[in-house]
Amino acid sequence: MTRRFSITLPDDVAAVLDNVDNASAYIAEALRLRRHRDATRELLAAAGYHPTDEGVQRMRERLAANRAARAKRQAAGQ
Description:
Blueprint: H1 11-17, H2 23-46, H3 53-75
């Protein structure tokens, strides 16, 4: 089942939708990802962890650095 909505978006957000084939699918996926993120944060909070946006960004940067280092080692044949 599907439902139709009429929404108003800021120009910068609407510009993104101008470049996708299926705006409804794009928005649906964005909402699913947001719900997943919120559920993950709730689960972490219930376990006593309270992630911040800054902490999440720092961890993303650490993971990206680790991936880059691993790729460099693999390229060097290690």
